[in-house]
Amino acid sequence: MIENKTLSETVFYYVKPDGSTANQCRIGTSDPIKPGDTGSWSYILYAKDFERGIPDPSNTSILEYLFNRSNSYNEDIPMTKKEEEITRGSIITFGKWHMKTKSDMESIERIVLDIEDDMALLISRYGIDCQPYNTIDQPITWGECTLREWLNNEFLMNAFNKDEQDMIAMSHVLAKRNSEYPEIEPGEDTEDKVFLLNVEEAARYFPNNEVRQCKPTEYAVKNNASIGSAGSCWWWLRSPGRDSDYAAYVRVHGSLDFRGYWVYYSYSVVRPSLRIYFET
Q: pLDDT (tens digit, 9 = 90+) per residue, 188-241?
C-alpha cells in the first residue's frame, strides 16, 4: 500500500500462495507518486503482477502501468483519470456488486458511453441484477417506479464506497415521450445518481442490434433473468411503453422494443447508468 509517500520510501514484497513473503524490492526513486499532488492517495500493487512485467522500479510511469492494468485486478484502482485516459467505448471498473452469489462482491465492468466536459457517462457491461420495473402492476412512470428507488438507495449505498459515491454526479434525467407511443405520459424529469437509459439514448449509444445485446451475470441468472439461445438477455429502459403500465426494453437479440412489457415483469435485467467526475 502506498499512501502519501514517495516511491523511494516504499518496499514491495512478493506474496506467495501460502501467505509468506519473498523477494523484497525497494523502489529506487525519490519522485512523488503523483507530482504536484498534496492529497491522500492510495494504490495497491497485487502480487500476481510482481513477476509479470512490473516496469523498472526507477521509472515513475509505474502508476500509468497500474492504471492500464486495472481490468486485471479484482479490486478497484481509483478511477480519477485524465480525460485522455477515459475514452468512449473503453471498459473500466467502478463499484462492486454480486456477480455469482449473494455473498460475493466483485468489481463492476462498465462501458464508457460518452465524455461530457469533466464527466463520463457509464453503463454496466453486463446485466448485473434481475428486477421488475415496478413491483406492482399499475400505471407508473420512471419517477415513481420501484426500480428507480432501488437503484438510488439500496444499490447506490451497497455498490459504492463513500469516495465512489462522491464521484457520482447528480444527473438531470429527462422524461421523454416514447416516439412510437407519444400519447403515453412519461412523467416528470428527475434528479438521479443512478438511472436507466431511455429508448433514444439506447439507440444513440448502441447503434445496432449486435452491440446492444447484453449478457447477464451468474447472479442475475440465479435471480431468474430470462436469457435467449445465445446467452443474451433483455434489459429495461426507462421510457414508457404502449400503455402506462408498460416499460420499454431491449430484446435478447438487441432490438429496441418500443412497445415494452408489463412493469411488474420480474425476468428482465438491469444495466445501471451513471456519470462520474474525473480529473482533466
A: 999 999 999 999 999 999 999 999 999 999 999 999 999 998 999 999 999 999
- DSSP letter at 144 equals G
Q: How far are the Cα atoms of 62, 99, 133, 142, 162 from residue 159, in angstroms, in the given order?
A: 28, 12, 19, 21, 10
Convert the pLDDT of each residue in 51-94 to its tens digit.
344 444 444 344 444 444 444 333 444 444 444 468 999 999 99
Helix (H) or strand (E) holding 62: helix 62-68
pLDDT tens digits, residue range 249-261?
999 999 999 999 9
Neighbours of 151 (CB within 10 A): 23
Q: Which of 71, 120, 64, 75 is nearest to 92 (CA)?
A: 71
Continuous H helices in 191-266: 199-205, 209-212, 218-222
214 DSSP assignment: B
pLDDT of 269 reads 98
Grid coordinates representing 90 are: 473503453
43, β-bridge pairs: 2
pTM value is: 0.72
Q: Residue 156 is inside which H or E element, if any?
A: helix 156-159
DSSP string computed for 141-193? -GGG-HHHHHIIIIIHHHHS-HHHHHHBPPEEE--PPPTTSTTS-----EEES
CA triple 127-187-132, angle to 5 deg: 30
Q: Which residues 6+ apart lie within 8 Å of 85 measured at CB?
A: 67
CA distance 165 to 162: 5
Q: What are phi and psi of 114, to 5 degrees?
A: -160, 155
CA distances from 24 to 2, 10, 33, 232 (A): 15, 11, 20, 46
